[in-house]
Amino acid sequence: MSVGSPLNIGLILGAVIATAAVLIWVERRLLAVWQDRLGPNRLGPLGLLQVAADMIKILSKEDWVPPFADKGVFVFAPTVIMVTMLTAFAVVPIAPDVGIIDFNFGLLYFLALSSLSVYSAVLAGYASNNKYSLYGALRASAQTLSYEVFMGLSVMGVVMLAGTFDLRVIVEAQQNLWYIVPQCLGFAVFFIAALAESHRTPFDLPEAEHELVAGFHTEYSGIKFGMFFVGEYIGITLSSAMMVTLFFGGWHGPLLPPVVWFVLKTAVFIMLFILIRGSLPRPRYDQLMAFGWKVMLPLALVNLMLTGALVLMVGSDA
Amino acid sequence: MNVDRVQVESLVPLAIYFLLVLGVVGVMLAIPRFVAQRRRSQARDEPFESGILSVGDTHLHLGVHFWPIAIFFVIFDLEAIFIFAWAVAVREVGWPGYLEMLVFVSVLLAALVYLWKLGALDWRTRRQQLQDSLLSERG
Amino acid sequence: MTEAALQRPPPAAEPPEPDIVAALRGRLGPAGLLCHQPTQDGIPTCWVAADQVLPALRYLKDEAAPRYAMLFDLTAVDERLRRHRVGLPDSDFTLVYQLLSFDSNDWFRLKLALPAGTASAPSITGLWASANWYEREVFDLFGIEFVGHPNLRRIIMPPTWQGHPLRKDHPARATEMGLFSLPAERQAFEQEALRFVPEEWGMRRSGEDNDFLFLNLGPNHPSVHGVFRIALQLDGEEIVDAVPDIGYHHRGAEKMGERQSWHSYIPYTDRVDYLGGSLNNLPYVMAIEQMTGIEVPPRAQVIRVMISEFYRIASHLLFYGTFAQDVGQMSPVFYTFVDREKVFDIVESITGARMHSSFFRIGGVAADLPQGWDRRVREFVDWLPPRLDEYDGMVMQNGLLKRRTQGIGVYDTEQAIAWGVTGAGLRATGLAWDFRKARPYSGYENFEFEVPTGRNGDCYDRCAVRVDEMRQSVRIIRQCLAHMPEGPYKARHPLTTPPPKERTMHDIETLIQHFLSVSWGPVIPPGEGFACIEATKGLNGYYLTSDGGTMSYRTRIRTPSFPHLQLIPDMARGLMIADLIAILASIDFVMADVDR
Known about the structure:
The complex is a heterotrimer. By secondary structure, chain A is an all-alpha fold. In chain A, about 70% of the residues lie in helices and about 0% in strands.
């Protein structure tokens, strides 16, 4: 088996979609555990068949496009997040022989696709012709524009250390030292930006239930709503995988096979996403924006210059 | 020439993967057309606005205060591209390159500080600002 | 004392005229102040001439000693079917203004007689901002016009409603009204009638360089705590203006009071503030006890206090969890619901029901405490305080939550009083005024507890006050536990419900009395009674009028949430949608408590 083999492609696509589906169950059960509840526990062992039930339900819901909506865009919007998030997975280096493509500019490719995903929320909000949706779209665009800027900057420290945008090279460079050590600041910024890009609590302003009912997807139902849902979970998985790749040594680890290490590390970050959802309140629009521009952006720039100096000093010594 | 061919060939798995992704999304969109129920009622043809008929619609002129964000984004994201290029070549360009970048980033930070002082990075409403300052006066 | 002697109304000993009445008489002259009416609740009650209402109220508000700073209630009575109103001025509709003084913690009631034909009165919105909704309510339910009101339109009933429900000639039951049906065109008509028209509220549709967006928040919205609607005028995220719209939860609780026996109305009171359960029974039964002169035995009083405080804790816990949830914190509500279940377990083991136990009776409570009640109560009072400490760290000390709620939705004590705000919303402005301390009832004077206050009158302080109140409630329950008196749990009085039964098999008089009292319910002597309590959300008062029958002639429920919602536009203007949600959460209202 090698990177890009048909088997690899099929298995990875299947695994990512399955992960997103199971995450629906994982999130509900985990939140329940943290909130003194049981969560879905009736269908199948541990309630696992809930995943199947949810899928059957959502697929058999009416495929409804509101007459007042901009129909083409309305249908197109949810596919954007699915396609961008799934396609972005192509560059994730899962293990030495597992992956879809070995790409020199893997990191840039990831950044580009993850910024494209915001179109999903923005288009959905505008196409819905609904006021709550409009607010969701406005918030989504403002928030993503702001957090986009320093998301890219935050990983440039890693690029400097490894000297490449190639994710596989970056992972291999971490054999002895995970980049979380020299890049803890960069990781913090990247983590927050990734939370914001995935529209997860506390950055769920575009769909803030308590304020905008369901925000940009208020008018969505059935499978098109399901796509936002699944797209969000794929996004979480992708962000977690990137954190592992960039800062936590990717597949490196003792004893266990590389794939297992990769999956375990990714799972930890997925659960961290869920834990954060269970614990933090939501900031206000202006607070979110101010935080991005006044705290995160300067931090990312400072981290950049410090790392540059570090790289050059260590380099000149050697 | 040869190098180009190698790169194109290495993109084949990506293309296959992309087509597969499109296929999956297509199938997901198609299934409900065959299995889903269909219902009609008057209320579902109205945009949801908490159960009340809407006043006006969503096509409206927004105040100018929304647009600065877009402009800041264009400015800062463009500059970020230069930084990307430097980041990958940091060892090659060495200390001279570092100094140039330091100047560049300082200018960027100065611009940020300027916008900050200008109040352009404060999205609070006037009353929010007032209440916050009252609150900090009281301690 | 024989049973027959007990049945007489309490001696209506002519009380000396209160000083304030004499002062008002001096001010208005004998032609202005028509008469002073003695009532069983002892509240100074004066009838004034139509042209003297405004001067009288202005005097009471600004100049009198004590000053009556708050318009506590404004309502009306349709007097056209009254039989027992000797010595009172002729009146078809009587307007009743009830004032509250914070100088003397005392009430004052002003009445204005109106003829049926052209019932209209001067608006007092210029004196009290809070009069706006009260006058709209009276207009809606009685058809009385208020001259000078800024926007006199229906508030409780739908805009398309025909007639005025609290008039005696309006049907009280659906069976008197013909079959209800809602064909499609009728539905479309009703929907259209609800559409918000900005111009009706003096709003413009566009500003200088932008269009305003009008957004309906509610009645079907996750954060409006029931069916509450606010029409928002928005400029981007900023709220330019807001118009609250209520009435979607109106169930005619006051009208139902006129069709239920005095006893069978008790369960309705549970459901007015449906989070307060039996706490709401208290002002109702206390008002009847006042009208009949029933003395409630000490054990019953302490049981009432204990149950009330349990319900206060249950309501505040729900508030606490949903408050955190509305600013986006998902988990605390689940923890507080666990605690709330524990409260309900105890309430259930004492009363047999959970949320709406209807446990209080005229003259006492429904049953004695069960064996072993103290063990469960003790467990709870040891359980809750550590949990509250934990929530402090999770919610109150959370930086994000503080930034979302501090300095948001601010009003000061003066504003609060002008708008009729009571309860935690008033105390959060720094005024340590709790009705349980100001005018103790049901033996609260025997308990030690503190009145928590806030400093800034913002959302955060309103929450903090309620959190501290839960600790004080635990303290009160501990005292109930330690000092529960022995003795009967209900007064021995023939008008208590259900009536005493022990002697029915000994003499025919008592048997007949018991039979009538059970099948018809007690006959309450004619008169007026008013009782008020510090309920979960503020001051809750019942103003009852008896015409000597088995049913109330007029049941007025003054609920705290009604005036609180009126303050929303002032609190929210110039803030953002997210702030409005925090404000709504901090008010702690339920729509049944607003619409009744």
